[in-house]
Write a structure and sequence with these properties.
By secondary structure, the protein is mainly alpha-helical. It has a single domain, classed as Orthogonal Bundle (Recoverin, domain 1). The chain contains 5 helices and 2 strands. A two-stranded antiparallel ribbon has the order 1-2. The longest helix has 21 residues. It starts with a helix and ends with a helix. Keywords: Calcium, Metal-binding, Repeat. This is EF-hand domain-containing protein. InterPro entries: EF-hand-dom_pair, EF_hand_dom, S-100_dom, S100/CaBP7/8-like_CS, S100_Ca-bd_sub. One of its GO terms (molecular function) is calcium-dependent protein binding. It comes from Pyxicephalus adspersus.
């Protein structure tokens, strides 16, 4: 597989790993999303002030308002964080 194909499979695997722990296997509950963020994107939660911030993130991502995050909604998070990281690295001085 190419690097991009590998990256895509890794994103799918991370989603599936956390989505299958409770509720529906094809969505993330609020608890599953929090666990995913804690383990996979700890920098996101470092600035969070508590449970309310995770709840706000869930509501923001939950486009269809079903109180769960499906894979498409999860990809919005991944794409947004990736874009922010890319912008930050572009501003960093090159070695």
């Amino acid at each position: 597989m190419t690097e991009l194909e590998t990256a895509m499979v890794l994103v799918m695997n991370v989603f599936d790993k956390y989505a299958c722990t409770e509720g529906k296997k094809e969505t993330l509950t609020n608890n599953e999303l929090k666990k995913l963020l804690e383990k996979e994107l700890p920098g996101i939660l470092q600035g969070a002030k508590g449970k309310d911030d995770c709840d706000k993130l869930l509501k923001t991502l939950d486009e269809n308002k079903d109180s769960e995050i499906d894979f498409n909604e999860f990809l919005v998070l991944v794409a947004s964080v990736t874009c922010m990281a890319h912008q930050r690295f572009q501003k960093s001085p090159k070695k």
